[in-house]
From TrEMBL:
Annotated InterPro entries: Glyco_trans_2-like, Nucleotide-diphossugar_trans
Domain Glycosyltransferase 2-like: 5-172
Pfam families to which the protein is assigned, alphabetical: Glycos_transf_2
Protein name: Unannotated protein
Entry's Gene Ontology molecular function annotations: glycosyltransferase activity
PANTHER family: GALACTOFURANOSYLTRANSFERASE GLFT2, RHAMNOSYLTRANSFERASE WBBL
Spans through the membrane: none
Glycosyltransferase found in the keyword field: yes
Family to which this protein belongs: Belongs to the glycosyltransferase 2 family.
Length: 344
């Protein structure tokens, strides 16, 4: 089971040695190759990696093909079972790869992604939503209407930034790779995720091991590229975008947007004593249901208490949302398709 980690550099990339060092340090048990693509290497990226240069395979392109096409070249030249796309401003963490590979055991999962933290350790993204106007929003980011706990559990998402993706190489190639129409950058990741969705495949958020993304600051040049790519994205997916959530100038309902692909929204209302053994058992049962189908949303509603955080951490990988409230009985759960009262 081999994994090729691919990172594409363009222009000055001082963060590249840090990215490669983290990949080397946190390789884990999987057989792993690291490929660095430069396009072209006018900044001495390879030499700038020092002792790490011998740990990577270098593909030097003579021109700037763009993020997507350069990654496509690297995938074509490797023969591993899996490929991981890793931005040169990303730092992976201990144990990052194994849960993502495990998620790909589900044949319907095309893309496995971790949450992204910013350089200060704050949640920047736990998957993204694509709106009907072609725009996107990072769930859990600075503009998301709800808090950390509303998004930090395993589930299927519209897409996620390709700053860190893991895919089966065969799946990537069967989907056609990154579409060159988005070169040099932006929206090639949302496009490939949409292609996967259109073929019955999904992007799965795997929350076990977040990684750190030292995102490059926005500039007018980058914004201009993003606008052009968004226009191409809207044109290509004009037939499917109307099925996506609408974004109102007055904002949007985070829960409804987050769960817009879920068919079932099951709520377990725990009406017993807070922090009791019965509450822990109710969480086990709800988590077992959540793990059966990540496309459904299963929410356990419990009274506030000191053990809630532990329940969330214990069961978030299963896809269970744990919602803590002051009064379980007074909570409006009209958004649910099924409500169960437990713990009486």
């Amino acid at each position: 089971m081999g994994v090729t980690c691919i990172t594409v550099a363009y222009g000055p990339t001082p963060s590249l040695p840090r990215t490669v060092e983290a990949l080397v340090r946190h390789a884990g048990d999987a057989a792993q190759d690291i490929v660095v693509v430069t396009q072209p290497d006018t900044e001495g990226c390879r030499e700038g990696m020092g002792h790490l240069a011998d740990r990577v395979r270098h593909i030097g392109l003579n021109e700037n093909l763009g993020f997507g096409p350069a990654n496509n070249v690297a995938v074509e030249e490797c023969d591993s079972e899996y490929v991981a796309f890793v931005n040169p401003d990303l730092v992976v963490t201990e144990g990052w790869l194994t849960p993502l590979l495990r998620a790909l055991d589900d044949p319907v999962v095309a893309i496995a992604v971790p949450p992204l933290l910013d350089g200060e350790g704050r949640l920047a993204e736990a998957g993204q939503v694509i709106f009907s106007d072609g725009g996107t929003e990072a769930m859990g980011g600075s503009h998301w209407p709800d808090g950390y706990d509303s998004v930090m559990f395993g589930r299927d998402v519209d897409y996620a930034s390709a700053a860190c993706w893991v895919m089966r190489r065969e799946t990537f190639l069967s989907l056609g790779g990154f579409d060159a129409r988005y070169a040099p950058a932006y929206f090639e990741d949302s496009d490939l995720a949409m292609t996967a969705w259109s073929r019955g495949l999904v992007t799965r958020l795997v929350v076990d091991r977040p990684v750190v993304h030292h995102h490059v600051a926005a500039s007018e040049q980058r914004n201009s590229l993003a606008r052009a790519s968004r226009a191409a994205f809207e044109q290509k997916w004009a037939g499917l975008l109307p099925r996506q959530p609408e974004r109102s100038p007055r904002g949007f309902d985070g829960r409804a947007v987050r769960d817009h692909r879920a068919v079932r929204r099951v709520v377990h209302l725990f009406e017993g004593v807070a922090d009791s053994p019965q509450m822990a058992l109710a969480a086990e049962a709800a988590a077992a249901e959540a793990s059966k189908d990540p496309r459904d949303r299963v929410t356990l509603v419990v009274p506030c208490g000191p053990t809630v955080g532990g329940l969330r951490r214990r069961h978030r990988s299963s896809g269970l949302e744990v919602l803590a409230v002051e009064s379980v009985r007074r909570l409006d759960v009209s958004w649910a398709t099924e409500v169960r009262n437990v713990g009486r």
